[in-house]
Amino acid sequence: MARHSDAIDGVALLNKPSGLSSNQALQQLRRHLAAAKAGHGGTLDPMATGLLLIAFGEATKFAQAWLEADKTYTFRVVFGAATDTGDATGAVVRTAETSVTETALQAVLPQFLGEIEQIPPMVSALKRDGKPLYQLAREGVTVAREPRRVTIHLMECIAFDEAAQRAVLRATVSKGTYIRALAEAIGTTLGVPAHVDQLHRDAVGPFSCDAALSLAAWCALPSEHTRARLLPVDTLVRHLPAIALDSAQAERFRHGQPVTLRERTNAHRLAPQSNSGVQLRATERALSVRVYLRDGTGYRFLGVGEWQLQAGVLSPKRVVAKLLHSSPTLPEAIGNDVVWNRTFEDVKEYRYAG
């Protein structure tokens, strides 16, 4: 007899263990919660550990953005051996005597900052004619891959073992960056073979693995306690500014209809006074916002909309299918953000431009 599944909504921060695929870890947690629907915000290799954003129910509608986010990794590079996968799961294909020094390593790391080109490894989930490259690699087939431009925002050496010829590095990278390929490229620049033997994801955007629980810890909690530990659905969009609607406006928004927020003459005249990262200028035409219903119980998350600044119109873009639990106050963003109410009488961290 199949186990009953519930329509659970929320977000779990999971510290994925090594040896499981991201989907295997997700399915274990989903079964523990008896959740009907789940997804994650960015795959980790089975060998890798670290932060995996797990979205349940309505939260799956908003997890996609975190596939595009910058991510921070701590990884260990072994010099002197290359593998056919670029990591410790592969077969060694080349070895060499090495004498890399920390000074030499520190000297080459700046070369990898900024925009660089990477050729995706054959052992990757990219597809060729509908077939994953890792499957082709298992069949002994190698195909040409187009270089990709990625951005390395941070690259630093945090530990070096000269005797073992190993270095622990930390990097913050843009979407689509392959850490295995990065390690191999560092080795090539130093003139030695190299591969990754440990990889941990520290952060996805503003979300840190420090706040995550291990899979064992999640599954050790009674199901009802596990659900109580889930973050609210709107956690995934708290990087966006917020607008609260009254019940009539919210009804229109929930049914996919645009909502007029204010008169056109004033809608574009707000300019930022904060470091929130929200850029709002008179020349801009639209701004993505998170939207709430303000009622007698507090604020209920409705979804994400696009605010047409000059027209003063809010258009639904992604809407939750049901009213979620209310919060007594409008949830603030992760970090320093801006919040408006529906009448724009309470404008925090913004001023009117002259």
Automatic annotation (TrEMBL):
Keyword Isomerase among record annotations: yes
Example GO biological process: mRNA pseudouridine synthesis
Keywords: Isomerase, tRNA processing
The reaction(s) this protein catalyses: uridine(55) in tRNA = pseudouridine(55) in tRNA
Residue intervals of the Pseudouridine synthase II N-terminal domain: 30-179
Record's keyword annotation contains Acetylation: no
A Pfam family hit: TruB-C_2
Residues the record marks as active site: D45
EC number in record: 5.4.99.25
Gene3D superfamilies documented for this protein: Pseudouridine synthase (3.30.2350.10), PUA domain (2.30.130.10)
GO MF terms held by the record: RNA binding; tRNA pseudouridine(55) synthase activity
Residue ranges of every copy of the tRNA pseudouridine synthase II TruB subfamily 1 C-terminal domain listed in the record: 241-320
Function: Responsible for synthesis of pseudouridine from uracil-55 in the psi GC loop of transfer RNAs.
Protein family (similarity comment): Belongs to the pseudouridine synthase TruB family. Type 1 subfamily.
Name of protein: tRNA pseudouridine synthase B
Organism: Hydrogenophilus thermoluteolus (Pseudomonas hydrogenothermophila)
Lineage: Bacteria, Pseudomonadati, Pseudomonadota, Hydrogenophilia, Hydrogenophilales
Gene: truB
